[in-house]
Amino acid sequence: MAKKKKNKESKPENEAASSPAKWLVPLLVAVAAGVFVTLLLGPKETVIAAGSGNWSYKVVQKFRHDPGAYTQGLLVHNGVLYESTGLRGQSSLRRVDLMSGIVQQHLDLDKRYFGEGLHFHRGVLIQLTWQAGEALVYNNETFAHLRTLRYEGQGWGLTGDGNQMVMSDGSDVLRFRNSSDFSVVREVKVTENGKKVDNLNELEWIEGRIWANVYGTNDIVMIEPEDGRVVGRLKLNGLLQREDRNGREDVLNGIAYDRATKAIYVTGKRYSYLYQIEVTEPKPRG
């Protein structure tokens, strides 16, 4: 249900505008009081507003992306793009040449799987599945299936910082998992200005923070891993320009970070392009 907008209160006209004597004395008193307070307390400090702010972005360049790929997971490792795609009977694991968008290696998942988030961890690729409760572990060079890790609930997004892994399930909860047996070590609830943020989808760990697509929107939230606070929000409205559309696009989904070059890439389900973006943190409001 849409919230009703409150009508702005109109200020009454100043009936004394034609009589300077009635407003001049109060004005002088107010100015004097202000000077006294300033002298007493010192100059006003710039106050940074609590909670998150909206970051801005610009597209640096765009690369071809398979418009048939229902993107669920995305990552860059050693300059190579890896992608997990979804839908039953269409799910896959892919190695993609980033510059050309050409799929260099492709593995179809069993038809019972709906591919989800993807993470590179210590020489292996770990691919989540939506409702099967299984994370599939592969050799990152050959895509040979090495083992299966099991978990409860749904699998959506997966990322990590090289030591710990964190997983989303479409709710407001992020679960940190043991890298050996995938057991839950701890969990945090994600909030923004005290309100929960759910529908957390694809994840990427960028410079000490967890970035998450918010399913069904063009937003990415930046999360502090220790307490789940959202400290930034990136709205990617306008990313998909008219000339980039193919008519089959679904939601924005997919964040990849190249730790070597600091480049950030985003795309969406059935998007025709992968976008490299630069982001700018909002200026403090004072």
Automatic annotation (TrEMBL):
SUPFAM superfamilies cross-referenced by the UniProt entry: YVTN repeat-like/Quinoprotein amine dehydrogenase
Pfam families, A to Z: Glu_cyclase_2
Positions of transmembrane segments: 21-42
Alphabetical list of InterPro entries matching this protein: QCT (IPR007788), Quino_amine_DH_bsu (IPR011044)
Organism: Acanthopleuribacter pedis
Record bears the keyword Repeat: no
Highest taxon of source: Bacteria
Taxonomy of the source species: Bacteria, Pseudomonadati, Acidobacteriota, Holophagae, Acanthopleuribacterales
Protein name: Glutaminyl-peptide cyclotransferase
Coiled-coil blocks: none
Keyword annotations from UniProtKB, A to Z: Membrane, Transmembrane, Transmembrane helix
GO MF annotations in UniProt: glutaminyl-peptide cyclotransferase activity
Ribosomal protein found in the keyword field: no
